Amino acid sequence: MVGLLSLHEPLGFETSGKDLVAFFRGGGEARRAADALTRAKIRHELTTDIPEADPLEAWRAASRPFAVGRRLWVEPGEADPGAPSPPGNRISIRVPASRAFGTGSHASTRLALLALEEEVVSGRDVLDVGTGSGILALAAAALGAARAVGLDVDADAVFVARENVLRHEFGRRVALYAGPLAAVRGRFDLVVANMIAEEILPEAGAILARAAAGGRVILSGVTRDREARVLARMRRGRWQLSARLAEDEWVCLCLARG
């Protein structure tokens, strides 16, 4: 169901008991998502009379930091001066829930972060396609990237990512752009894209073209039922699957030239 709702650009998700609550920017988006669930015969309830306010304020207030992999510590809530420091040598990344996707709480983002940690990032150039909140570009910088570029066709998301970049000292190594892949020139040692399959497939060639000789590509946001189709499209030239991570219905595919 998350994959289906993600096609309609939700602001975020929240669990309530056994229910999943999706937040949308407006009633139109919510109704289109509800129609899609109806066609898929998934039981749901549509509510569009929420009082005007920040729908994610309560979520941020209740959020707690959590560890990802061996080195990262994600803080999806507002800054708390009394909060303890990250345990051990973990690096803190603060990305409060917002209208841009990516707080680390979604499986696709966690998988991308885990894949990033397994790559040789230090001293390299990284491109984050569909950056959303900027969390992956920030993680690359935190892990020692010489330069991390975040790109998104949604200008609003880039404004949010800019706010998050300014929260971090290592954010100085992150550059942000609004627009298509053509907005960024050059090639990168590592290209990461946390986007659903329907967004990845039309850009497959452009994504691979942004990888330098010897470069690598990480694709997250792919559901299991779309995995084979994405792999078939991305296996161009000598590109081969080098690693695969999975959580629930989501998979993360790591590609390298054979």
Helical amount: 25-40%
CATH superfamily of the largest domain: Vaccinia Virus protein VP39
The count of strands amounts to 12
Order of helices and strands: HEEHHEEEHEHEHEEHHEHEE
In one word, what is the shape? globular
Strand order of the largest sheet: 8-7-6-9-10-12-11
Assembly type of the shown chains? single chain
Q: Which ranges are low-confidence, i.e. pLDDT below 50, for 5 or more consecutive residues?
A: none
CATH class of the largest domain: Alpha Beta
Main sheet makeup? 7 strands, mixed
Taking the alpha carbons of the first and last residues, their distance comes to 35 Å
Question: Class by helix and strand content?
Answer: alpha/beta
The CATH architecture of the largest domain is 3-Layer(aba) Sandwich
Kindly identify the CATH topology of the largest domain.
Answer: Rossmann fold
Give structural notes.
With about 260 residues, this protein is an alpha/beta fold. The chain has 2 domains: about 1-50, no CATH class; about 100-255, Rossmann fold. Helix content is about 30%, strand content about 30%. The protein is built from 9 helices and 12 strands. The strands form 3 sheets. A 7-stranded mixed beta sheet has the order 8-7-6-9-10-12-11. A 3-stranded mixed beta sheet has the order 3-4-5. A hairpin with a 2-residue loop joins strand 1 and strand 2 (about 20-25). The longest helix has 13 residues, at about 25-40. It is globular. The two termini are about 35 Å apart. The mean pLDDT is about 85.
